What does this fold into?
Amino acid sequence: MKIRIRFAKLGRVRWTSHRDVARMWERALRRARLPLSYTEGFSPRPKLSFGLALPTGCESKAEYLDVALSESVESTELTADFSSLLPDGVDVLAAQVLPTGTGSLQEEVTSCRWEIDVPQMGPDALAEVIDRVLGAETLSVTRERKGRPVTDDMRPSVLALSSRPSGAAAELVAELGTRPRGVRPAELAQVMGIELGLACRTNQWIECDGSRGEPLTTPVPDAAAWERAS
Amino acid sequence: MTSLWPRIEPLLAHVTKPARYIGGELGACEPEHGAGRVAWLLLYPDTYEIGLPNQGLQILYEILNERSDAVAERSYAPWTDMEAAMRAAGVPLFSVESNRPAADFDILAFNLSAELTYTNLLNLVDLAGVAVRSAGRSDSDPLVIAGGHCAFNPEPMADFVDAFVLGDGEEAVGEITEVVARWQSPGGGEQVGGREELLTALAKVPGVYVPWCYEPAYRDGRLTGVSRRVDGVPEKVEKRTITDLGAWPYPKQQLVPLIEVVHDRLNVEVFRGCTRGCRFCQAGMITRPVRERPAAQVERMVRDGLDRTGYDEVTLTSLSSADFSGIESTVSSIINDPECSGQVSVSLPSLRVDAFTVGLAAEIQKVRRTGLTFAPEGGTWRMRQVINKLIREEDLYAAVDSAFSQGWRRVKLYFLIGLPTETDEDVLGIAALAKACVEIGRRYHPNVTVTASVGGFVPKPHTPFQWFGQNTMEELRRKVNLLKDAVRGVRGLTLRWHDPEATAVEGLVSRGDRRMGAVIESVWRKGGTFQEWSEHFDLGLWTEALEAVGLTLHDCVYRHRDEHEVLPWDHISAGLHRDFLWEDWQEALAEHGLEDCRWTPCYDCGACTGLGVEHVVASTVAPAGGSQGTGQDLDSGGMVPVRFLPTAAPAPALAGAGGAGQGEPVR
It folds into this structure.
């Protein structure tokens, strides 16, 4: 059986990498004594699969992880005290047994919603930048891949952008598609010509036949419970 | 005191591996600073990934934080990008727990495990905003102290370190805390004075060497002695030795970092000290005698540690873990523990070269079987007699055969080149052994790999080879080339070698006297940090600095010393008689091996008798399968000064003074 866990990554722990988070989970799951299912061979590892990697330095209230178990457990066993086995800032928000045949997170997630602090810019100025970016035909971003510069058009993945005030500065709310490839907040900031502050992934969405849902249907705790640790 | 975090965090977006600087480890203490608590900052002068796993610092971290009169935090060397960002932003060195500035601590305590990290110590003291030279520090500056194996020749760092702790630190850190606390609190009733009074008081703590209290003298460019310039301090400083490892079940809460580090697994120390007597090995010489941890305590520490950390791998650490009495039953109790559900692997560092050991490895590495490593060290039997690593070719081949036949595909062999009396035939013997191992492997599998890793030998203080003139870097390079030619085109055989230039500098610093301080400082001032990292190592900085002080590599490194030459560490004692070391050096030159004194009569090296301690082992019988270095079938010696550990499993009655009893529940 497989279970899916939604968790947050907030505060200092945001400086750890995707790989670090995978290792934290391996240790936490062993400490929780869940009946993990292991890969075969000389180097068995627990069967865990994560969704889209969260860039180092970003926070999230919507990380997901699928865990394969060798025996059945109750969903209620999953949330109880689990967060205490994880480092500060990594907290379990929801967990559910997956119906058989559920696709992997990598395959299914179609877009992510982000809240991004934009320091030293007012909401109106940010709104102007947003208009310009959404009006552009293409948004080229060049990155290095295997030692060679590769230029991609990000425009198809920029689904929606909006601006709202956040203290004295502005906050950018972005809906970014995952296909043909996911756009990272740093790349979005680069094409928008804005400084990137703290970025937080708030949702991952699965769009299917015109309707949209999250990878887990169970409600997550009150937002105030996982307000940013500073 | 305010945390520097608001000034640190903005730097993190611009540096590699930012999580090096965020702390947050499982097991980290929440420091409670305050009046009446001496604040220690424990530092490892290399990156977080290298420094965090250091068991010595983790042991002291817990011992200090358990005391009511002390508090300890940790820090590591920021990588060059972070250092540049910190200097540009005016952010000083800080602790990873509470992000306090390093200069706010009472003591900056360094672990010195490798000579090439010395310039990093200077850099960290400077980043703390403290004068790098002891002489430039005021009463309000932190004390800079250092321990670890490199402290056994403290002279090269004598200008920068206020006090060195020699040997085991478990007890000494408490005594140092008390001295500093008394000095700080005028209510203590003792004479309170300036920094010089503090240094003098520290110099009276057993095992503590305060360079300021001692003065070197030279004649004709040679050291003639290091003598006391302050009354009441010992003429010769003896190392500290804890007699009962069982009384110190630390770390009880090994730190589990958020990021991947070296040795990223549970580590449980099964014994300290080693009497195999390998003549090149400083660790084996300076940590005598052997003190085993009771097997029941080992098992408990493993079980509790795995439970607490979630690790699935445990290393039983020591200088030669297969020598632990009853190693078989200990590992089988770990791997057969139903709670581990067959997913825990055990690893033993420094495998002995024999089939028994491989059998043991096969038993315990049922999961995650990677490669096996053996260290024959010398390429010929003659060479191995010189270095007292008495592995016969048959032993090695049997071990390798056993490994390949049991499914391993990769074997790594460690060798040294540049050993005393070494000939080209000895060097080429390395290639011959490695090739033979590949052939053995091919009998079992077409694609086996054997890696021969070749290090340049650096003679170390307090070893029988301390008088030996190190091979020049040109000579080492020539020997590496001999080997490269000899293994060219051999499928399945990979040769790796250590940079002969770095070997020369390690030799320079290892046996240097106090004049080396100016060289180290000059290299640091010219930006020579992270010298143990090949991308940062710069021989030119060292040779220029050496020339500037009028010293040469020839005189400092390559020259043979004679019996009566004053050595820079003659006023430091690791318990070994100088006569014993000299005799063993002569035995080496005569190609005579020496047996392990755990299982044969004492040859009076001085460690047990001089320190008033004994070997603590559970068995006087050499381990099953024979014992490398001692022949294959020894009689157990009736005259061995050995204290027996009780063999009954439950709670050996060993609650020692000063430490938490082992029956105490782990927090």
Notes: Residues 424-442 of chain B form the longest helix (19 residues). Chain B has 21 helices and 21 strands.
